[in-house]
Amino acid sequence: MKILVAGGAGYIGSHTVLELIEEGIEVVIFDNFSTGKRELVPGGTVFEGDLHNQSDLEKVFRLHNFNGVLHFASLIQVGESYIDPQKYYRHNLFSSLNLLQAMLLANVKHFIFSSSAAVYGTPEQIPITETHPLNPSNPYGFTKFFVEKILQDYERAYGLKFISLRYFNAAGADPEGRLGEMHEPETHLIPNILLFLLGEKKGFDLFGTDFSTPDGTAIRDYIHVTDLAKAHVLALKKLPALKKSEFINLGSNKGFSVLEVIKAAEAVTGQKIPYFAKPKRKGDVDVLLASRKKAKQLLDWDLMYSDLNTIIETAWNWHKKQSMPK
User: Fold this and answer.
1) CATH number of the domain located at residue range(s) 2-171+222-250 in this protein
2) N or C: which terminus of the chain carries fewer CB neighbours within 10 A?
3) What's phi and psi for 278, nearest 5 deg?
4) What is the pLDDT of residues 166-179, one digit of tens each?
5) With a threshold of 0.85, does the pTM exceed it?
6) Does the annotation mark 140 as catalytic?
């Protein structure tokens, strides 16, 4: 089996490439390294190209016979998507359409899409199941929503078969310390806490202390990035036998508040974490929690690393390693 991984030098993409390689699957990473990191490439063949350049796509599909495609290459900052929605619509939609066109021309019909819980918007019930109404509340979420609609039309018209994996909060790092999170800028909670402790951030801001939760801070469903990566491999293997395309949540079905994450980080690192309380951000909801029933049933997906302490320990080990003098 040979797989194209678009965005394979990014955070979740690189961890998935590592899992694919360990499963004996041949991988070609397609990345322009605008946000992906060369040091996160764990192996496989690298094709440096841009999803906005159709000739790059035509070339990689001409050089290789792929059995399927995994698509991670998108812009991901919710706040930035409010400020510059054109950037998000142009990048996330055009890149996906170009990739799908190249697949159709090459007669590659198996596709795993990196989607998001952002397609749900403000939850009407908790935990969120895949049948929850789709009502994105920001441009980033709408780009994922629109690509999912495109995929449904491509299945009907062209026979494309896909699984769209809707992530909740990816966190942590490879348990063996080979890979981790390297976003610029970093917007995720756990790495920002840890980078502050390592002196790489001037302060740590806590956005919102007046949510309708027991301690007033937002509750989120954190999923270890290695568990996420393993779900992609399972989805890839299950896809050919499925009768129809699917949408599947990837979450732990367990939530932690921001203050609970801070306390867990203090326990792991042995350091006190002072914070600056700031107003909640636009679009932030009280609780986001996934039902993982469908992922268990369809993918036989078990969680190995998604307890909060393991998430923080693996991330802490990674960031400490990165902060050491080279």
Assistant:
1) 3.40.50.720
2) C
3) -125, 160
4) 999 999 999 999 99
5) yes
6) yes
